[in-house]
Design brief:
single chain, 312 residues, TIM Barrel, eight-stranded parallel barrel, four-stranded antiparallel β-sheet, binds flavin mononucleotide
Length: 312
Protein backbone atom coordinates (compact mmCIF):
# COMPACT_ATOMS: atom_id res chain seq x y z
CA UNK A 1 0.00 0.00 0.00
CA UNK A 2 3.04 2.30 -0.14
CA UNK A 3 3.24 5.07 -2.74
CA UNK A 4 6.04 6.86 -4.52
CA UNK A 5 6.02 10.58 -3.92
CA UNK A 6 8.75 13.03 -4.88
CA UNK A 7 11.27 10.21 -5.08
CA UNK A 8 10.35 8.91 -1.60
CA UNK A 9 8.48 5.78 -0.67
CA UNK A 10 5.55 6.76 1.58
CA UNK A 11 3.68 4.18 3.67
CA UNK A 12 0.31 5.78 2.88
CA UNK A 13 -0.99 8.88 1.04
CA UNK A 14 -1.83 10.89 4.18
CA UNK A 15 0.23 14.02 4.72
CA UNK A 16 -0.26 16.65 7.41
CA UNK A 17 -0.38 20.17 5.92
CA UNK A 18 1.69 23.11 7.16
CA UNK A 19 -0.07 24.73 10.12
CA UNK A 20 -0.39 25.09 13.87
CA UNK A 21 -1.15 21.33 14.19
CA UNK A 22 2.53 20.77 13.19
CA UNK A 23 3.94 23.81 15.01
CA UNK A 24 6.67 22.08 17.06
CA UNK A 25 8.27 18.74 17.95
CA UNK A 26 5.34 17.70 20.14
CA UNK A 27 2.72 18.28 17.46
CA UNK A 28 4.84 16.74 14.67
CA UNK A 29 5.38 13.70 16.87
CA UNK A 30 1.61 13.38 17.40
CA UNK A 31 1.08 13.40 13.62
CA UNK A 32 3.75 10.71 13.13
CA UNK A 33 2.54 8.59 16.05
CA UNK A 34 -0.95 8.67 14.57
CA UNK A 35 0.34 7.29 11.27
CA UNK A 36 0.87 10.29 8.95
CA UNK A 37 3.31 9.33 6.20
CA UNK A 38 4.63 12.88 5.97
CA UNK A 39 4.32 16.08 8.01
CA UNK A 40 4.95 19.61 6.77
CA UNK A 41 6.14 22.26 9.24
CA UNK A 42 4.54 25.70 9.33
CA UNK A 43 6.38 28.11 7.05
CA UNK A 44 9.86 28.90 8.33
CA UNK A 45 11.15 32.39 7.49
CA UNK A 46 14.46 34.11 8.27
CA UNK A 47 12.81 35.80 11.23
CA UNK A 48 10.18 34.11 13.42
CA UNK A 49 6.71 35.65 13.15
CA UNK A 50 4.97 36.58 16.42
CA UNK A 51 1.76 34.64 17.07
CA UNK A 52 -1.56 36.35 16.39
CA UNK A 53 -4.42 35.75 18.79
CA UNK A 54 -6.77 34.24 17.81
CA UNK A 55 -5.05 32.59 14.85
CA UNK A 56 -8.25 31.17 13.43
CA UNK A 57 -11.64 32.83 13.02
CA UNK A 58 -14.53 30.34 12.68
CA UNK A 59 -17.99 31.20 11.44
CA UNK A 60 -20.65 28.64 10.65
CA UNK A 61 -18.16 25.90 9.71
CA UNK A 62 -16.05 28.29 7.67
CA UNK A 63 -12.38 28.59 8.65
CA UNK A 64 -10.44 31.84 8.28
CA UNK A 65 -6.74 31.53 9.15
CA UNK A 66 -5.02 34.65 10.47
CA UNK A 67 -1.85 32.77 11.31
CA UNK A 68 1.32 34.07 9.69
CA UNK A 69 4.07 31.47 9.29
CA UNK A 70 6.10 29.75 12.03
CA UNK A 71 6.70 31.41 15.39
CA UNK A 72 10.08 29.66 15.62
CA UNK A 73 13.46 30.70 14.23
CA UNK A 74 15.60 28.25 12.29
CA UNK A 75 17.75 27.60 15.44
CA UNK A 76 14.61 26.62 17.34
CA UNK A 77 13.60 24.31 14.50
CA UNK A 78 17.03 22.67 14.67
CA UNK A 79 16.29 21.71 18.30
CA UNK A 80 12.70 20.68 17.53
CA UNK A 81 13.59 18.45 14.56
CA UNK A 82 16.43 16.84 16.45
CA UNK A 83 13.92 15.58 19.02
CA UNK A 84 11.41 14.21 16.48
CA UNK A 85 11.39 10.45 16.23
CA UNK A 86 10.52 10.09 12.56
CA UNK A 87 10.11 6.29 12.51
CA UNK A 88 9.06 5.51 8.92
CA UNK A 89 7.59 8.98 8.22
CA UNK A 90 9.07 12.06 6.58
CA UNK A 91 9.21 15.70 7.62
CA UNK A 92 9.17 18.45 5.00
CA UNK A 93 9.93 22.06 5.95
CA UNK A 94 7.84 24.81 4.44
CA UNK A 95 9.97 27.87 3.74
CA UNK A 96 9.48 31.40 2.46
CA UNK A 97 11.81 34.32 1.80
CA UNK A 98 11.61 37.59 -0.06
CA UNK A 99 14.55 37.18 -2.44
CA UNK A 100 15.98 34.23 -4.34
CA UNK A 101 19.17 34.23 -2.27
CA UNK A 102 17.22 34.31 1.01
CA UNK A 103 15.08 31.37 -0.11
CA UNK A 104 18.14 29.39 -1.26
CA UNK A 105 19.84 30.12 2.08
CA UNK A 106 16.80 28.89 4.02
CA UNK A 107 16.55 25.78 1.83
CA UNK A 108 20.16 24.85 2.65
CA UNK A 109 19.53 25.51 6.33
CA UNK A 110 16.48 23.25 6.56
CA UNK A 111 18.31 20.51 4.67
CA UNK A 112 21.15 20.81 7.20
CA UNK A 113 18.80 20.51 10.20
CA UNK A 114 17.17 17.33 8.91
CA UNK A 115 14.30 18.17 6.53
CA UNK A 116 13.51 15.27 4.17
CA UNK A 117 12.07 17.70 1.65
CA UNK A 118 11.02 21.29 1.13
CA UNK A 119 7.65 22.87 0.44
CA UNK A 120 8.18 26.30 -1.09
CA UNK A 121 5.51 28.69 0.14
CA UNK A 122 5.71 31.52 -2.35
CA UNK A 123 2.05 32.42 -2.95
CA UNK A 124 0.83 33.02 0.62
CA UNK A 125 -2.82 34.12 0.56
CA UNK A 126 -2.46 36.90 3.14
CA UNK A 127 0.90 38.21 1.94
CA UNK A 128 1.00 38.97 -1.76
CA UNK A 129 4.27 40.93 -1.65
CA UNK A 130 6.21 38.44 -3.82
CA UNK A 131 3.80 38.99 -6.71
CA UNK A 132 5.72 42.23 -7.36
CA UNK A 133 9.11 40.50 -7.47
CA UNK A 134 9.97 36.81 -7.86
CA UNK A 135 6.45 35.80 -8.89
CA UNK A 136 5.96 38.60 -11.39
CA UNK A 137 6.51 36.36 -14.42
CA UNK A 138 6.58 32.62 -14.96
CA UNK A 139 10.28 32.89 -15.92
CA UNK A 140 11.10 34.49 -12.56
CA UNK A 141 9.17 31.79 -10.73
CA UNK A 142 10.97 29.06 -12.70
CA UNK A 143 14.35 30.63 -11.96
CA UNK A 144 13.62 30.86 -8.22
CA UNK A 145 12.58 27.22 -7.99
CA UNK A 146 15.52 26.10 -10.16
CA UNK A 147 17.99 27.84 -7.84
CA UNK A 148 16.49 26.07 -4.81
CA UNK A 149 16.47 22.67 -6.55
CA UNK A 150 20.14 23.18 -7.52
CA UNK A 151 21.14 24.14 -3.97
CA UNK A 152 19.82 21.08 -2.11
CA UNK A 153 19.80 17.28 -2.39
CA UNK A 154 16.29 16.78 -1.03
CA UNK A 155 13.03 16.93 -3.02
CA UNK A 156 11.39 20.30 -3.60
CA UNK A 157 7.62 20.73 -3.77
CA UNK A 158 5.98 24.03 -4.72
CA UNK A 159 2.70 25.08 -3.18
CA UNK A 160 0.31 26.89 -5.54
CA UNK A 161 -3.03 28.69 -5.22
CA UNK A 162 -6.04 27.73 -7.37
CA UNK A 163 -5.46 30.50 -9.92
CA UNK A 164 -1.92 29.26 -10.62
CA UNK A 165 -3.04 25.60 -10.84
CA UNK A 166 -5.11 26.53 -13.89
CA UNK A 167 -2.52 28.87 -15.45
CA UNK A 168 -0.91 26.83 -18.22
CA UNK A 169 2.17 29.07 -18.45
CA UNK A 170 2.95 29.02 -14.72
CA UNK A 171 2.38 25.26 -14.43
CA UNK A 172 4.64 24.67 -17.44
CA UNK A 173 7.31 26.87 -15.84
CA UNK A 174 7.10 24.78 -12.65
CA UNK A 175 7.19 21.59 -14.68
CA UNK A 176 10.50 22.74 -16.18
CA UNK A 177 11.93 23.98 -12.87
CA UNK A 178 13.16 20.66 -11.48
CA UNK A 179 10.59 20.61 -8.65
CA UNK A 180 9.48 17.03 -8.04
CA UNK A 181 6.04 17.81 -6.70
CA UNK A 182 3.37 20.45 -6.64
CA UNK A 183 0.86 20.99 -3.84
CA UNK A 184 -2.39 22.83 -4.18
CA UNK A 185 -4.34 24.69 -3.29
CA UNK A 186 -3.34 27.43 -0.90
CA UNK A 187 -6.14 28.75 1.23
CA UNK A 188 -8.00 31.54 -0.53
CA UNK A 189 -7.83 35.26 0.32
CA UNK A 190 -11.11 35.75 2.13
CA UNK A 191 -13.16 37.93 4.45
CA UNK A 192 -16.26 36.71 6.24
CA UNK A 193 -18.12 40.02 5.93
CA UNK A 194 -18.63 43.51 7.25
CA UNK A 195 -20.48 44.56 10.40
CA UNK A 196 -22.55 47.29 8.76
CA UNK A 197 -23.56 48.95 12.07
CA UNK A 198 -19.93 49.40 13.12
CA UNK A 199 -18.60 49.57 9.52
CA UNK A 200 -15.82 47.13 10.34
CA UNK A 201 -14.45 44.17 8.44
CA UNK A 202 -14.80 40.65 9.88
CA UNK A 203 -12.22 39.37 10.66
CA UNK A 204 -9.95 42.41 10.92
CA UNK A 205 -7.54 41.26 8.19
CA UNK A 206 -7.88 39.48 4.87
CA UNK A 207 -7.53 35.86 5.97
CA UNK A 208 -6.74 32.45 4.46
CA UNK A 209 -10.25 31.10 3.81
CA UNK A 210 -10.35 27.34 4.02
CA UNK A 211 -12.28 24.31 5.26
CA UNK A 212 -14.77 22.06 3.52
CA UNK A 213 -16.26 24.91 1.46
CA UNK A 214 -13.11 25.13 -0.68
CA UNK A 215 -13.05 21.41 -1.53
CA UNK A 216 -14.76 21.88 -4.94
CA UNK A 217 -12.05 24.39 -5.90
CA UNK A 218 -9.22 22.13 -4.77
CA UNK A 219 -10.76 19.11 -6.53
CA UNK A 220 -10.87 21.09 -9.79
CA UNK A 221 -7.29 22.25 -9.23
CA UNK A 222 -6.11 18.65 -8.72
CA UNK A 223 -7.87 17.53 -11.91
CA UNK A 224 -6.39 20.44 -13.86
CA UNK A 225 -2.89 19.84 -12.50
CA UNK A 226 -3.17 16.15 -13.40
CA UNK A 227 -3.88 17.20 -16.98
CA UNK A 228 -1.16 19.87 -17.14
CA UNK A 229 1.82 18.36 -15.37
CA UNK A 230 3.71 15.17 -14.68
CA UNK A 231 4.96 16.35 -11.29
CA UNK A 232 3.60 14.42 -8.30
CA UNK A 233 0.55 16.15 -6.86
CA UNK A 234 -0.15 16.67 -3.16
CA UNK A 235 -3.72 17.88 -2.79
CA UNK A 236 -4.75 20.23 -0.02
CA UNK A 237 -7.78 22.34 0.82
CA UNK A 238 -11.06 21.30 2.42
CA UNK A 239 -10.16 17.63 2.98
CA UNK A 240 -11.96 16.21 6.01
CA UNK A 241 -12.22 12.41 5.80
CA UNK A 242 -11.19 9.22 4.03
CA UNK A 243 -13.80 9.59 1.32
CA UNK A 244 -12.40 13.03 0.42
CA UNK A 245 -8.88 11.57 0.23
CA UNK A 246 -9.99 8.84 -2.17
CA UNK A 247 -11.75 11.41 -4.38
CA UNK A 248 -8.52 13.43 -4.73
CA UNK A 249 -6.49 10.30 -5.52
CA UNK A 250 -9.01 9.36 -8.22
CA UNK A 251 -8.37 12.78 -9.77
CA UNK A 252 -4.62 12.14 -9.87
CA UNK A 253 -3.23 13.11 -6.44
CA UNK A 254 -0.39 10.99 -5.07
CA UNK A 255 -0.72 12.35 -1.55
CA UNK A 256 -3.47 14.27 0.24
CA UNK A 257 -3.01 16.76 3.07
CA UNK A 258 -5.12 17.15 6.20
CA UNK A 259 -5.19 20.65 7.71
CA UNK A 260 -7.71 22.49 9.86
CA UNK A 261 -9.77 19.33 10.46
CA UNK A 262 -6.98 18.33 12.88
CA UNK A 263 -7.60 21.52 14.89
CA UNK A 264 -11.22 20.51 15.21
CA UNK A 265 -10.89 16.78 15.84
CA UNK A 266 -7.41 16.35 17.32
CA UNK A 267 -4.34 14.44 16.12
CA UNK A 268 -5.83 10.98 16.78
CA UNK A 269 -8.23 11.68 13.90
CA UNK A 270 -5.31 11.19 11.45
CA UNK A 271 -5.22 7.50 12.44
CA UNK A 272 -8.98 7.14 11.97
CA UNK A 273 -8.77 8.55 8.45
CA UNK A 274 -5.89 6.23 7.53
CA UNK A 275 -7.91 3.28 8.79
CA UNK A 276 -10.94 4.46 6.81
CA UNK A 277 -9.07 4.53 3.50
CA UNK A 278 -7.21 1.26 4.12
CA UNK A 279 -10.50 -0.44 4.97
CA UNK A 280 -12.17 0.94 1.81
CA UNK A 281 -9.26 -0.24 -0.35
CA UNK A 282 -9.27 -3.73 1.16
CA UNK A 283 -13.06 -4.05 0.94
CA UNK A 284 -12.93 -3.27 -2.79
CA UNK A 285 -10.00 -5.63 -3.38
CA UNK A 286 -7.44 -2.98 -4.32
CA UNK A 287 -3.86 -3.79 -3.39
CA UNK A 288 -2.22 -0.51 -4.37
CA UNK A 289 -3.17 3.17 -4.58
CA UNK A 290 -1.80 3.22 -8.13
CA UNK A 291 -4.88 1.15 -9.11
CA UNK A 292 -7.19 4.06 -8.25
CA UNK A 293 -4.90 7.02 -8.95
CA UNK A 294 -6.41 9.18 -11.70
CA UNK A 295 -9.19 6.63 -12.30
CA UNK A 296 -11.92 9.30 -12.50
CA UNK A 297 -10.03 11.62 -14.81
CA UNK A 298 -11.27 10.13 -18.06
CA UNK A 299 -14.87 10.77 -16.98
CA UNK A 300 -14.17 14.47 -16.99
CA UNK A 301 -15.20 16.12 -20.25
CA UNK A 302 -13.06 18.87 -21.74
CA UNK A 303 -14.79 22.10 -22.69
CA UNK A 304 -14.54 21.10 -26.36
CA UNK A 305 -16.12 17.67 -25.75
CA UNK A 306 -18.83 19.25 -23.62
CA UNK A 307 -19.62 21.74 -26.40
CA UNK A 308 -19.74 18.90 -28.95
CA UNK A 309 -22.06 16.92 -26.69
CA UNK A 310 -24.59 19.76 -26.70
CA UNK A 311 -24.13 20.28 -30.45
CA UNK A 312 -22.43 23.63 -30.19
C1 LIG B 1 -4.08 27.97 11.69
C2 LIG B 1 -3.48 27.73 10.33
C3 LIG B 1 -2.11 27.92 10.14
C4 LIG B 1 -1.53 27.72 8.89
N1 LIG B 1 -0.18 27.91 8.71
C5 LIG B 1 0.38 27.71 7.49
C6 LIG B 1 1.77 27.91 7.28
O1 LIG B 1 2.54 28.27 8.19
N2 LIG B 1 2.25 27.69 6.03
C7 LIG B 1 1.46 27.28 4.99
O2 LIG B 1 1.95 27.10 3.88
N3 LIG B 1 0.13 27.08 5.17
C8 LIG B 1 -0.42 27.29 6.38
N4 LIG B 1 -1.77 27.08 6.56
C9 LIG B 1 -2.57 26.57 5.43
C10 LIG B 1 -2.70 25.04 5.51
O3 LIG B 1 -1.47 24.42 5.21
C11 LIG B 1 -3.73 24.51 4.50
O4 LIG B 1 -3.41 24.98 3.23
C12 LIG B 1 -5.11 24.96 4.80
O5 LIG B 1 -5.43 24.80 6.15
C13 LIG B 1 -6.11 24.25 3.88
O6 LIG B 1 -6.40 22.99 4.28
P1 LIG B 1 -7.71 22.62 5.14
O7 LIG B 1 -8.90 23.09 4.36
O8 LIG B 1 -7.61 21.16 5.25
O9 LIG B 1 -7.56 23.34 6.44
C14 LIG B 1 -2.35 27.32 7.80
C15 LIG B 1 -3.74 27.15 7.98
C16 LIG B 1 -4.31 27.36 9.23
C17 LIG B 1 -5.79 27.16 9.40
Amino acid sequence: MSIEFAGLSLKNPVVVAAGSWSSNQENIQKCIDNGAAMVITPTICSEPTPAVNPEVFYKENEVYSLSLYSHYAIEDWEDELEKVEKKDSYVFCSIRGTTVSEIVFLAKQVERIGADGIQLNLFAPMDISLEKSILQTEEKLKNTVKQVVKAVHIPVMVRVPHYIASNVNYVKALNDSGAMAISGIDSIRGLYGVDIEKACAIPDAVAGYTGSHIKPISLAATATLSQLTNMDISSVGGIRNGRDILEFIMLGASTVQLGSVILEKGHAYIGQVIEEISYWMQERGYSSYSEIKGKALNTLLTFEKMAKKVGR
